[in-house]
Design a protein that fits this description.
343 residues; 68% helix; globular; ABC_transp_permease; BCAA_transport_permease; transmembrane helix; membrane
């Protein structure tokens, strides 16, 4: 039972990332009708925003510390970050330590701007083009962004540690009645799951309970009718593109302590996230979230040594096998709407 609970926790961790990226993909497809193969690159850009913030907060200079001396008794030079010199050792040190949460605040406006520029500068010209054209141009954009990241940051993964308060592991087994040390799980992975739940809940609440969100949902269902009512639905859809980019970006920021950022991480998550979207149902927001967590849990169980010893390599293909089975039995996906991608 402890192994099962541990795999469920691992699945929720993976599923959180899949669900957040798939939610953004579905928002873009449901509003603009665009198959955006550059969405994984937005996840990657968010991760490297965290890297940039960490480097910026780590900028330092040398100063003489009279309290520290070498073996000859001469005062030593020590490195002090500019943040610590501006805000003091305690506050400045805390800001540096919490660089990942700080990066979330920085990433939100940056990703909104990136999404706006991407939609207005490129994708709007492909609204009425075939989906194959949309895939080609957005995939090409993703490759360009990937190579830019590789050029400026290098090809090697860059470690981005979690705040000190969330390093280490939590004895989850004691919480659910098991013996101590039966189920040990990293704190930050639990934080990431809680963060994903909050973001997903915020997006759904925004779409359901605000006037803006209600108009967007109406536009997703019948764009022409909403336009005939005198509402500039295109402007609202552009804003939704920015929101989708921001969701992907902050998902990437928070994932950096779990997976060190590298230039190809966007492509790695993109393929899996598109499978999640298709399994959940093209255009279905609840379907994307449900499929993300479902496939994350299945992939986690498939990675168990007991399972891999019976079926070698099953952890690499389980998501695609499940996708094939679901699409053979439910061609529209779990919660797909009629008429989407069927013309």
């Amino acid at each position: 039972m402890d192994a099962i609970i541990l795999q469920i926790l691992n699945g929720l961790d993976k599923g959180s990332a899949y669900a957040l990226i798939a939610l953004g993909l579905t928002l873009i497809f449901g509003t603009l009708g665009v198959v955006n193969f550059a969405h994984g690159a937005l996840f990657m850009i968010g991760a490297f925003v965290a890297v940039t913030v960490q480097r910026f907060l780590g900028f330092s200079f040398e100063q003489i510390d009279p309290d520290k001396t070498d073996f000859l008794g001469n005062p030593l030079k020590v490195k002090v970050t500019y943040v610590e010199s501006w805000f003091g050792p305690e506050v400045g040190g805390t800001i540096v330590d919490w660089s990942v949460p700080v990066a979330v605040l920085v990433a939100i406006p940056i990703m909104l701007l990136v999404g706006f520029v991407m939609e207005r500068g490129l994708i709007k010209h492909f609204y009425k083009r075939p989906h194959a054209d949309q895939i080609l141009v957005t995939f090409g954009l993703a490759i360009v962004l990937q190579e830019l990241i590789k050029y400026f940051y290098g090809a090697n993964p860059i470690q981005t540690p979690a705040p000190s308060a969330f390093k280490g592991s939590f004895d989850f087994g004691v919480l659910v009645g098991f013996d101590p040390n039966a189920i040990i799980y990293p704190y930050w992975r639990l934080v990431y799951f809680a963060f994903a739940v909050v973001v997903l809940g915020a997006v759904f609440a925004f779409l359901r309970f605000t006037t803006f969100g209600m108009v967007v949902r109406a536009g997703m269902a019948d764009r022409e009718t909403v336009g005939l009512l005198g509402i500039n639905i295109d402007k609202r859809f552009t804003i939704m593109f920015g929101i989708a980019a921001a969701v992907a970006g902050i998902a990437g920021v928070m994932y950096t302590p779990i997976l060190s950022p590298n230039y190809h991480m966007g492509m790695d998550f993109l393929v899996l996230s598109f499978v999640v979207v298709v399994v959940g149902g093209m255009g279905s927001l609840p379907g994307a979230v449900a499929a993300g967590f479902l496939l994350g849990i299945l992939q986690s169980f498939a990675s168990m040594n007991e399972i891999k010893s019976l079926i070698p390599g099953i952890d690499q293909v389980i998501i695609y096998l499940v996708a094939i089975i679901i699409l053979l039995t439910r061609p529209r996906g779990l919660l797909g709407r009629a008429g989407v991608m069927e013309d």
